[in-house]
Specification:
Elements (H helix, E strand, L loop, with lengths): L14 H7 L5 H6 L8 E3 L5 E3 L1 H6 L7 E7 L9 H14 L4 E5 L4 H5 L7 E2 L2 E4 L1 H5 L5 H21 L6 E6 L3 E3 L9 E3 L10 E3 L1 E3 L4 H8 L3 H9 L2 E5 L4 E3 L6 H8 L6 E5 L4 E4 L14 H10 L2 E5 L4 H16 L5 E6 L1 H7 L12 H20 L4 E6 L6 H13 L4 E4 L1 H4 L5 H12 L15 H12 L4 E3 L2 H12 L7 E4 L19 E10 L4 E6 L18 E2 L5 E2 L3
Parallel strand pairs: 3-16, 3-17, 4-15, 4-16, 8-11, 17-18, 18-19, 20-22, 21-23
Antiparallel strand pairs: 1-2, 2-14, 5-6, 6-14, 7-12, 9-10, 12-13, 14-15, 22-23, 24-25
Helix pairs in contact: 4-17, 7-8, 7-10, 9-10, 13-14, 14-15
Length: about 575
């Protein structure tokens, strides 16, 4: 399906209407493109299926294809289109005759009903069935939330029945989880109402996509690794300051059972029938922002090219993709695509959203500092990159020429893409360039810092080399906690920064490429099962809230029972 010509972003068809008009292939035909036998697909209706774990395990030892990361500049209200470009590039590679698989994260209900909307692409570069993917899909997030909350229930139950482990209720760190934006649940009291209801204590909720169970789900190589990691979750401390784990609470077996079906990767397709494996979905501003290791490794053994994305801008998503996912899973990316729009770059250059439709070359040039830093950062990891210009109808020839000229001066190429309106027709040039990059063998991937670097130095390295900060600050309690993590044998863990996605700084209103700022670290948390240390910078929250006018207000069923308002 394709729409010729450069479409207006206010085209008569919405994303959901385009998706609804599609005629997807039976999921067995999509699986056949990757060599997946029909009997290894567990159908969830005609157009989505789970790939059987025994088949996934049988792929071990096969040669791997080339891994291509799609990332972006810092997001703005003007829109960048990273997921849309990921889908469009996958379709473009298929169009030029390459065997390709796309690996995406599953969307969270929080953003779907909040302000961001869904995460299935847009226009004529979508994965379908769009409504299912953006809502309950195959139930993976429900299973992850259930496993998280089972552990919480078993923890409080253990305390109620005598607390044989001597858990200190003042030092319990495990939170409950819900896949919804709900600020009222950030900090609560539980156990109220008398002796029959357990011991009163302070508690709280994280959104499911920020939970450690989600991170473990996405980093586990197989079921055995999943079970091992779940057992390492630290839920709190004893009164003697010793860690208490999920294994100590004897919760691991039941948690693993709850996740058994969810661990099977989900197979869907793009509007053009390109296979897409959509599995796992940690946020990138408060978690590590990548789809599951199982899905990515399976795709690399089934396709010659695998296109995947990392959440938000490259300062968060790409850094965590490289320093956490690739480091832990032994992945070696062959190329990176940095998505940008003229509109977003002008906003980084100081233009208000309502003035973005007017040509403004000085603002564009000023905003290019944001793109330049991201390109510089990608080069630090030894991965060759190309800039994808997600073109809007109002972009002028002069603006596009300036953007290409400046990117070329930075040592890269900028290629116009019109996949939103034209599907794979609009990404052929990008696909050919990316294939050449990936095939060229110029990638020399290396993480930003070695495992042996002290934890505080890892935090400082990310802040100064990736964010452009002059210094990092934290009070003595933060340093003491990091020292305790190292003493307990966790010093080799990578860092997962929790920070606003809108800026290189911790101020979401500071656009462009700020330098010389300070990154304040207000908390650090051990994710013993995910095997990383979370460093919370600025005012970032692990349970978001809904905006003044949430998207949920416009979502409804029409007279024929079809979903409207989802985007």
């Amino acid at each position: 399906m394709s729409q010729r010509g450069l479409a207006q972003r206010t085209a008569p068809w919405s994303d959901i209407e385009i998706a609804r008009a599609a005629r997807p292939h039976p999921i067995e035909e999509v699986g056949a493109r990757l060599g997946i036998p029909p009997d290894q697909l567990y159908r969830h209706g005609p157009h989505k299926a789970k790939i059987a774990l025994p088949f996934v395990e049988s792929l071990e030892g096969r040669p791997e294809g080339r891994l291509i990361l799609v990332t972006a500049i810092n997001p703005t209200p003007a829109g960048e289109g990273k997921t849309t470009t990921t889908v469009g590039l996958g379709d473009g590679l298929a169009r030029i005759g390459r065997k390709v698989a796309i690996c995406l994260r599953e969307p969270s209900l929080g953003p779907c009903f909040g302000v961001k909307g869904g995460a299935a692409g847009g226009g004529f570069a979508q994965v379908v069935p769009m409504e299912d993917i953006n809502l309950h899909f195959t139930g993976d997030f429900h299973a992850i939330g259930a496993a998280n909350n089972l552990l919480a229930a078993m923890l409080d139950n253990h305390i109620h029945w005598g607390n044989a482990l001597d858990l200190d209720v003042r030092r319990i760190t495990w939170k409950r989880a819900l896949d919804m934006n709900d600020r009222a649940l950030r900090q609560i009291n539980v156990g109220l109402g008398g002796a029959a209801n357990g011991f009163p204590r302070e508690d709280g909720f994280d959104i499911v996509v920020a939970s450690e169970v989600m991170a473990i789900f996405c980093l586990a190589r197989d079921m055995a690794d999943l079970e091992r990691r779940l057992g390492q979750i630290v839920v709190g401390q004893t009164r003697g300051r010793q860690p208490v784990t999920a294994a100590d609470l004897k919760a691991v077996g039941a948690m693993t059972v709850l996740l058994k079906e969810a661990m099977q990767p989900n197979l869907v397709q793009t509007l053009e029938g390109t296979p897409a494996i959509v599995h796992g979905g940690p946020f990138a501003n408060i978690a590590h922002g990548c789809n599951s290791v199982m899905a990515t490794r399976a795709a690399l053994r089934l396709a010659d090219y695998v296109v995947t994305e990392a959440g938000f801008g490259a300062d968060l998503g790409a850094e965590k993709f490289f320093d956490i996912k690739c480091r832990k899973a032994g992945l070696k990316p062959a190329a990176a695509v940095l998505v940008a729009t003229v509109r977003a770059l002008k906003m980084h250059g100081g233009v208000a959203k309502d003035a973005l439709g007017q040509e403004n070359l000085p603002a564009l040039e000023a905003g290019l500092a944001n793109l330049a830093r991201h390109l510089e950062n990608l080069a630090r990891f030894g991965v060759p990159a190309v800039v994808a210009i997600n073109r809007f109808n109002a972009d002028t020839d002069a603006e596009l020429a300036l953007l290409k000229e400046k990117v070329r001066a930075l040592g890269a190429e900028a290629i116009e893409c019109t996949h939103w309106s034209d599907g794979s027709d609009g990404t052929t040039a990008l696909a050919e360039h990316v294939a050449r990059l990936a095939d060229g063998g110029s990638a020399d991937f290396r993480p930003l810092y070695p495992d042996a670097l002290p934890l505080w130095d890892k935090i400082r390295t990310i802040a100064t080399r990736i964010y452009g900060a002059a210094e990092v600050t934290a009070d003595a309690s933060i340093h003491a906690r990091l020292a305790a993590f190292e003493a307990a044998g966790h010093g080799h863990f990578p860092i997962c920064m929790a920070k606003t996605q809108y800026s290189f700084s911790t101020d979401p209103n500071l656009k462009g490429a700020p330098s010389g700022h300070t990154i304040p670290i207000r908390d650090v948390r051990l994710a013993g099962g995910a095997e990383f240390i979370v460093a919370l910078a600025g005012e970032i929250m692990t349970m978001p809230g809904l905006p003044r006018t949430p998207a949920a207000e416009a979502i409804h069923l029409d007279a024929e029972g079809r979903i409207e308002g989802l985007f």
